[in-house]
Amino acid sequence: MKIENKGIVYLVLASICYAVMSVLIRLLAKEIPAFSQIFLRYIVAATTIFVFAKISKTNLRLKNTKDYLIMFFIAVFGYAFSTIFFTLAILNTTIANTIFIFSTNVVLTPILGFIFLQERFSKFKLISILLSVIGLYFLFKPTNLINPMGGIFAFISAIFHASYLIGGRKLKSYPAKTLLVYSTLCGVISLGIISLIFESNFYFPTGTLHQSIFTLSPFIWMIILIFGLDNFLAWLFLNKGLQTVKAGTSSVILLIEPVLASILGILFYAEIPQILSILGMIIISTGIILAAKEK
User: Helices (DSSP H) in 80-217: which residue ranges?
Assistant: First the structure.
């Protein structure tokens, strides 16, 4: 298999892992508050990547100061803050609005790729981006997009996510495990601070225990473990894909995730999609195929 095709396979696998997260998030929603849910699964993911890097004797040293600055930026903003603002968007607007606005990274990434990576706009890429945006609109049917807080948070998350894809391509000469070590470390620290500030009652309950880390059942801890391992695989596959696939193309291929998430919603939660949603999934899939065809 060609190296480029391997990159596409890695991105598809990353999308599958991200889609599984949508199911796991719902399983934990009633038991663990939003930021703490992310923090706990990040701990599992970070522990896994640190052990993985240690066993494989991964070199964590970068070549120069510029690479350290890029790594720090994408780890803090593209990785941790992207998740934080996405969560804030979910809390301030609908899930459909959040995902639709966040998915504007499919437009932002090629623009940033052209500016910072000199990635050209091919006809396949332009058509696939257009189809993806149309398909996303049909799939999520967003409403009240002028909602200021939620929309702004989702768009900031999209910008940070796009910057991660660009930065990941900038650092493509380094192993995916190197990027993961730095990213997960920043993610755990950032989410740990945020969750302790906004969800301190979960860790230091007062009065009658209602929702607390001390009352979680063994089943919930098992889901957290699975969630963290899934998170680790998603990051690993994403960074491996970015080593060989252009950032703009990667952003389109990663749209497999919302399509698969919708399908999983049917399987696990009996969420029967409307005709427009099915049409949206077909249009997005067509855009993804065109983006892959460019390779």
Answer: 82-92, 95-102, 105-116, 123-140, 148-170, 176-198, 200-203
* Residue 146: pLDDT over 60: no
Cβ atoms within 10 Å, residue 267: 9
The torsion defined by the Cα of 107, 146, 151 and 270, in degrees rounded to 10, comes to -90
Helix axes of 105-116 and 123-140: crossing angle, nearest 10 degrees = 150
CB–CB of 277/37 below 8 Å?
no
Q: What percent of the chain has pLDDT over 70?
A: 93
Please answer whether residues 158 and 105 qualify as being in contact, where contact means their C-beta atoms are separated by less than 8 angstroms.
yes
Domains of the chain, residue spans: 3-203+213-293
- Cα 10 to its chain centre, rounded Å, is 14
Overall pTM > 0.70: yes
**Of the candidates 196, 228, 277, which has an alpha carbon nearest to the alpha carbon of residue 24?**
228
d(CA 231, CA 24): 11
Half-sphere exposure of 77 (CA within 13 A, CB side): 17
